[in-house]
Amino acid sequence: MSEKHLHIVSFNIPYPANYGGVIDVFYKLKALHKQGVKVHLHCFKYDRDGNGKLASVCHKVYYYKRRTGPLAAMSMKPYIVASRRSDQLLNNLLKDDYPILFEGLHSCYYIDHPKLKDRFKVYRESNIEHDYYFNLAKVERNLLKKFYFWGASIKLKRYQKVLEHAQLMLTVSKADTRYLQEHFPHKRIIHLPSFHPSDDFNILTGKGNYVLYHGNLSVPENTVAAEFLAREVFSGTKIPLVMAGLNPPESLRKIAGNGGNIQLIANPSDDEMFDLIRNAQVNVLVTFQGTGLKLKLLNTLYNGRHVIVNKTILNGTGLDELCTVKETADDIRKSTEELFGKDFNQNELAHRSRLLNGNYSNKNNVNKLIEYIFGG
Fold it and tell me: Exposed end of the chain (fewer CB within 10 Å): N or C?
């Protein structure tokens, strides 16, 4: 059997895999490596350093400095795209004729380059980016940032047409699949859920003694969700709420600093976060931003007990029946009180296993990915 080689262009260094987008990239790399695919990984470096862990799951790893600053900001292309360009990246892609997978619209600067016109190119969708930035603008409180998000949304919507140059698009949710099929009716567009850390279930039966909300707390949509839970759902109750995640803003620190039943854990390690999810009695995950697949939901269903969500976070995932779905602060509070005294049992674990192992298995999905790209 001939060797299978694949270029993957990543918007960031995908390790440590501690937030949504890089989680999909890193665990995709691991799954491809297990199946013998030789990945040539190209990463843009800006907020984290290179990591030897990637060399263990890739054939080659290349790093390029992200071109941040005013020139990228003034480009007609979206800033997240214009700042990820490198002549050396293009030269490396041209050294062979292997297929190329572009991770997110961020990494698509060269997807329409004339020198790559005969290459098999795959677009890995993670969000409908202009919708994502539009919603960030709605919740952002800083006027300068709000203006940036509005402008980015307009540019991203206009730039989206570049995806015509991909031979295959792989989406993370059914809702996003429908959107791209409507806008690119002649393209091959397939729903392939995100890759994630859990090959097996690690759920504890019995009971925990706190509720957990977790996420990248520096992202405005997650800050808004955490503040909603702290102020409107759990304020005045006796149930302990733990909020955990990366780089929480001062507003969340102040809420937790008031004492009472609300605790903030900033920048937990991967192992700490895993333990927090696993030992919670209830994981509450709400969002007011409905694009993409929220990987924290998938990770929680593999590792946590009871899960309460709102409809927006489900976004066509098909995971509704594994969660308690509530919308209002009062309904979330009442459901939490009910579940707080309820054991998580083996029957519920078996139900999760049946659904998740069918559609969200890394092993099944990597075999599909290989077939889509290499033809089996």
Answer: N
